[in-house]
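Quick check before the chapter quiz. The format below is the same one you will see on the exam, so make sure you can read both the input and the output lines.
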Amino acid sequence: MKKSLLMVSLLAVFGWAQGQGYYFLKSKGTAAPYDLNATGSTSVTAAPATAALSAEQTLPFAWNFYGTAVTKFKASTSGYITFDVTQTADVTANTTLPNASAPKNAIFAFWDDLKLQTVTSGATTFPSDIKTFTYGATPNRVHVIQWRLAQASATSGKDITYFAIRLYEAGDFDIVLNYGFGSFSATTGVNNSDGTQGLNVAGAPNMGFGGKNGSYVAAESDVYKFIYGNVPAYNATVTNIDLQKFYGKNQNIPVKGTLVNIGATAITSFNLNYQIDNGAVVTQNVTGVNIAGYGAGSYDFTHGTPFNSATEGAFNLVVWASDFNGSNADGDTSNDKKSATINVIAKSVERVTLHEIFTSATCGPCVPGNVNQKNIVDGKTAGTYATVKYQQDFPGTGDPYATNETVARRGTFYGINSIPRMEIDGGWDGNANSLTNAIFDQYQQIPTVVELKATYHVSGQSVGIDVNAKSYIDLPSTTKLYIAIMEKITTQNVKSNGETEFEHVVKKMHPNQNGAVMTSLKANNPVDYNVVYTFPGSYKLAPNGQTRIDLTKEHSVENFNNLEVVVWLQNTATKEVYQAANAVSWNTGVAENKMATSVNVYPNPANASTNVNFNLVSEGIVKIEVVNMLGQVVSTQVSKTLAPGEQNIELNTSNIQTGAYLVNIISGDFKVTKPVLVAH
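Here is the expected output.
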């Protein structure tokens, strides 16, 4: 009996020892108090530096790595730290892990042949260094080792990335890949004290940078949380469920997501399960897979049985995996399931995708992007997309048609610091030269819950714009209406990139780049927004994008007959664009008929009143009415018999909302229509 108990004990100890190690989970986004450019930090290695190890650094709190206490470390310009402070030479040639030739007792944030080198752009110098700082209070402090502006050793200012390691006083650590641009072949992971046990993220040793391409957006950072402990043989967790915001009734809704294997054994088969509102479990057996363990392997799934509802409502979806490699149970059921809400609504609307392009007449790489985007959208159905182009103040001195508004839309709103750049509906972020038909279709085919219509009319230097929005769900309070008044083609801003014509150039955003508030964006509640904007002063061509025109005193419109307007509703918190619309120009060329000739409406724009002047050919009953963009009569002010000859009728517009309208002069079977802008 004693022998049996001893055998069981030994097996238990052996099994536990074999199961100890790191596994990781990937997530998105960081939050305060973590800060890419934190004040109060200590620079441990400054630029210029290549293939260098820092001096010994002391941890601010007791910490364990692979179950062993560590107190000091060295940081490498090649993107890792080592707790083996006897190491004196940097290792720049990265490998997969574990590896006995790699640095020992090390955490590899982004191991590649890197260097630290400052970059100067215009009047700004961006620092490059390895720095450390600590935030939080005992016993939950976090010690950060941050690499800023780490560059590929073989290039200069072209392949750049920012990343960090965060050591948690309470245990474990994570690796944050903030953002970057260019090409890298890196390794992210861990290696123990003798190189016999380790783990790396998929893609090593040829990983590219993580996070957002080209600019720092905290919510876009890739975060790899490494956890040390007893790893069960089988342990899988659903980390993501991929759902649209809403679906229509009777629509097949795919149950999609990501499964991560954080157990010790590779998964070759499993059951994929989901449940709606605690109803019957829907199961599919998945075979023919090979999902590596310890968090290194993931599987993007689509369940074979979609969900479909004939009724509206919010449905609770729960997804999990079971029965691994036959009938093996999950060793840790606490992290199995992932929940999400499926929103089914009565009606969805076809989307008009918004293409926002950041470009400049001084940007050579912008040319193929502009050409590629135009070639793709020219082959699409008109009205399924809207294009807006923001001229920028760099590279060099930038585009003469850059404005404070277009520059702020790039930097302040989207946090973009490089061009060419393109946003699709506030979601897809990349170079317009990377746009494909598949990407266009992917975003255009996402249904929306918002109907958005707009019309505009140009009179002199004034633009009247009427917008009508209707949502089939309540939109959040962070939703704003954006209006871009653009010139279809410009030619006076030619600079150095070879382009001689520029399309869809933003000249003014109303009221500015921050957008306007549309009140009462509640379900099934149509909302109107009306505005008349008058371009001030005279045309001025700025010398460049660094010396911009003053939008309060002057304008850069080459031809007021060549204007166009795009409007969109966007969530300022998430950047999601709910819907866009190309405003329709009112027909100003309605033919006059024999009922009346020489019809004029003035002043136009009107404030409290306007005059309708016309010659009546013969005596008759004349009705004059004012009609809004929806065809609704908002005012009938004249309906009486008039004698032939010249007529001058004053219309009271003081009680009519600001916006664009049509004035109809009707007599018998004849009608003349003239546009009028009302601006209070």
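If your answer matched, good. The helical segments are 2-19, 366-378, 404-413, 437-444.
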